[in-house]
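Morning run. Coffee first, then this:
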Amino acid sequence: KRIDYSYIKGGGIENAQQFYASAGKTASSGTNTVLDQAWTAVSSGNAGVIGSSSNVTISSGVFSFATTGIYLIAPCLTFYLLANRNSRYVLGKIEITLNNGSSYAVGSQAYQHINSVDSNPDYASVSPYYIFDVEDTTNHKFRLTMEAAEEMELEYGSNSSTVSIIRLGDT
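And here it is:
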């Protein structure tokens, strides 16, 4: 029996983009800090984009979508602690808004502990993943934040702190 192609066409990932922190950010002790420094599309090596490279845009640390759908937000945020200090925690969060930034809620968060053992900076990474149902491109957005028990720095550069955003399917 033959199957009509219209029933099986499509499917698969239609949009995927990756950005990296191209500037650093400092979080004061115990302060939730929006990662509103520069984010740049990854283009080095053999980096690829599926679909439109303008599907996700960033302004002042707020990530917006041009197309509705179900998105996987997958950051890997690397932090460093200055030498000879300890931090009980470093926290990376994905905060979502459903009202164009009037308020944000934590979609996902991940913790790590950093213990400085010598006179060199010490590093830790966190990866809080979130699946976001973007039903309204005007109001549904997200941002990344950091918080730590001690003053902490966001590591930056093309291989340091990144966020991958993958459209998994329709809403």
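The longest strand covers residues 69-81. Good start to the day.
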